[in-house]
Amino acid sequence: MKRRLNILCVIVLFVLGYSVLETTYYVGMGIKAGIEKGFDSKIDVKEREEMTNLQVVQLVPKDLGGAILIDSVYNEKSGEYVPAAYGQMIVSVNTQPSVLSRIISFLILIADYVAIVWAVVLFIRLIVSINKSDIFNWKNVRRLRRLGVLLIISFACTFFTAFLSFYNVGKVFSVTGYSLSMADMVHITSLVLGLSALIVAEVFAIGLRMKEEQDLTI
Question: Where is the chain membrane-spanning (predicted)?
């Protein structure tokens, strides 16, 4: 039984670890690209500005009840254009974010990263405690509650960042026949894991209270 539990814990740990690595990777790539473009003398001012203003946008057709494939793309295999609809694209638009907006976005990104790393540390401590057969105690209840709160904070940070980007792009960019969407910009994995951790924590807490009451009545 413990082996099965360890396997499930490792799977969850991989999910949390992936979130950390994904955030680290994209932040690192963004910093690296910015430094390289800044020091590359072959890139003119216009191209550097275009690279700075890159935005990823999600699109959905406005008339979902009518013709969805309102565009076309060239199919190299058949040598002809085929009906298509855009779902995601990278564009260069100047959203003109204020200095305050940039600072807030950066702080939210740091908060998200710290929350995920802290959550991974708590989860590792929880696994170690379980393997020592020290499972049902108030320390693990607190760990699970903190883990749940941290994962929900991580989701909130991701959602707010996506909404901020969605709002700023929506003010300066639109595509004929499409509406901007946040559908694929936010993943609910951390939210589901966070709520699950809080539920398990409360189950542990109820079990511990019942055990303490039974010990007092004996």
Answer: 7-27, 103-128, 149-167, 187-208
